[in-house]
Amino acid sequence: MKLETLKHGFDLTSMPLDPLADYWPASTTTSLAQRDWALTDVRSRLDLEAWQTFTDDLPRDPYVNCRWKRMSWLALDEVGDVRDMGHCPMAQGGAFNDAESMADRLRYYDPLTSDFLARPDVKAFVRAWARLWNLAAHEPILMQITGVRGEGLVDPLQGQGIHADGCKALSILVLKRENVSGADNHLYADKAGTQPLADATLAPGDILHLHDDRVYHSVDGITQENPAIPFERFIIIINSRFVDDFQNRILRRHFPDAVLNETR
Hints:
It is built from 5 helices and 15 strands. It has 264 residues and is of the alpha+beta class. It has one domain: Jelly Rolls (Sandwich). The longest helix has 13 residues, at 120-132.
């Protein structure tokens, strides 16, 4: 072993030059390029069990029954570090959200906890996700922990049906799926659902990437497998490059120096 490889106390030849280079399988970028969606998993990239604990203290969603949620606006800085941008409400225009309780209104949620955002595997995930979508510094990234728990039958989309989220880059990571029957994901080339593309049942650790401005999605209702035990299904939603003018106006108001999709 050459002496220069030991000058920092470890073998530099064994270290990857770019630690994010292989975060996503090559098939992920290929699939996104060829069919506008990709399904993979991150179970080897993060401590899923530790991430699941952050669903325990989620506040109730004040706009939707049976749902719990936190969200934060993040961005990379000039050197690629993940920064919390601060407060900004969530806004979805009626063109992207059919639910009466959510469309065309500002929605305010508690932020993701500092303990969660400080985790090295959370920061690595956000950096790798931004790299996957070729995001530049100061592009707002919306990251949510959200989900449903309860009994009986619940629509996790609360009336949205087949929809798009109003952005170009969207990924959905399942954190928890306990005592759940249903909640199958469906992808379509059209909002009417006449052109189905794929169906998938995501397990904890699975992540679905979508070109949200090209592919529509939906999720089936949830029922309990064991009626004596409440069900839980929680997910991470992370998205950026908004095509929803309503959301972009609100982002510009709160983050005047942000790089928005409308200016690209």
